[in-house]
Amino acid sequence: MNPFSASRRPDGAIVISGAGSGIGAALARCYAQPGQLFLLLGRRQAALAQVASELRQAGAEVELATVDVRDSAALQRIASDFARRRGPVALLIANAGISVGSAAELPEDCAIFAEVISTNLLGMHYSISAFLPYLPALAQVVGIGSVAGFRGLPGAAAYAASKAGVAVYLESLRLDLRARRISVTCIAPGFIDTPMTAENPYPMPWLMDVQRAAQQMRRSIDRRRRFVVLPWQMACLSLLLRIMPSFLYERLWPQRLASKPRRSDSFSTKE
User: Fold this and answer.
1) Residues with Cβ within 8 Å of residue 122, at least 6 apart in sequence
2) Which range (138-152, 160-174, 240-254) has the least confidence?
3) pLDDT tens-digit map of 5-15
4) Is 64 helix (H, G, I), strand (E, B) or coil?
5) Would you place residue 270 in the very low, low, confident or very high pLDDT band (cuts 50, 70, 90)?
6) Buried/exposed 204-235: b ≥16 CB within 10 Å, e otherwise
7) Helix 45-57, helix 22-31: angle, nearest 10
8) Which residues lie below 8 Å from residue 130, measured CB to CB, with a gap of 6+?
9) What sign for the dihedral angle of Cα 44, 50, 55, 60?
10) Contact predicate 112/100, CB 8 Å
11) Which of the chain's ends, N or C, has fewer CB atoms near its CB within 10 Å?
């Protein structure tokens, strides 16, 4: 028997960042049941309220907090206040992130790099570190990465770098938390049908329905798997790409390739 199985997860709240839409909202729906306490984090109050309404219809208790995950101090205040009033956190899902095109060679894209990496990587660390003091033994941390973090991608240097950082950060965190008996799961999805991928102007093979993807994620989370790639087709392709020599990998990409828009209003995909 796995000593860290879901059946042994302690009683406590489920905290999800980026919970207003997409994967965060879908995972919240997967875990909704009578009496389950949630804390939903996100930037858009109206979107959070809509998700909260769905969870309450399933019998869950829900609290909301509007916050930008780049604001470490605000996250620490929210975590401290929530734990003081409602007790420990059993499951923390760090999901908030943005995706926007970027060109590594353009100085004017420095602001995009700062925005993407500070949200996707630092924002994950700020979210996790704020709540870690309130996670008991056998609790679980989940971070949402991406297959984009496995190799460099044209037109997505900032996003790919941020997700590569997420994978290594979560592995490091797993090692650091062994003594506390807190497990860490990294989920690296391929293309999921969410508002974030709606702007992609290129083909998205094996595009998954977000609720179906969330159900698969929940099964992996409950089994406390360390690293998960989905769907399975993307897992196989990713394995091949990771071991492919660089000179072959570079030949896969045309010199001109459609990428996510670089314009500033692309940040509308942010949670």
Assistant:
1) 70
2) 240-254
3) 555 889 999 99
4) strand
5) very low
6) eeeebebeebbebbbebbbebeeebbbbeebe
7) 20
8) 72, 75, 76, 78, 79
9) positive
10) yes
11) N
- 227-230 and 61-66 as β-strands: parallel, antiparallel, unpaired? unpaired
Q: Give the Cβ contact number of residue 33 at 10 Å.
A: 10
pLDDT of 198 higher than 70: no
Q: What distance in Å separates the CA atoms of residue 213 and residue 93, rounded to the nearest whole number?
A: 15
pLDDT digits (tens, 9 = 90+) for 115-148: 999 999 999 999 999 999 999 999 999 999 999 9
Residue 65, judged by CB atoms within 10 A of its CB (0-12, 13-18, 19+), counts as: buried
CB atoms within 10 A of CB 240: 8
How far apart CA 146 and CA 163 sit, in angstroms, is 6
- pLDDT of the residue at 80: 99
Residue-averaged pLDDT of the chain: 89
- What element of type H or E holds 163? helix 157-176
Residue 267's pLDDT is: 37
Residue 38 CB-half CA count within 13 A: 32
Residues 6+ apart with CB under 8 A from 68: 43, 74, 123
Contacts of 271 (CB under 8 A, 6+ apart): 17, 18, 19, 20, 21, 22, 24, 42, 43, 44, 95, 96, 97, 98
Q: Which domains are present in the chain? A: 6-269 (3.40.50.720)
Q: List the catalytic residues.
A: 159
Q: Which residue has the tokens 């999921």?
A: 192
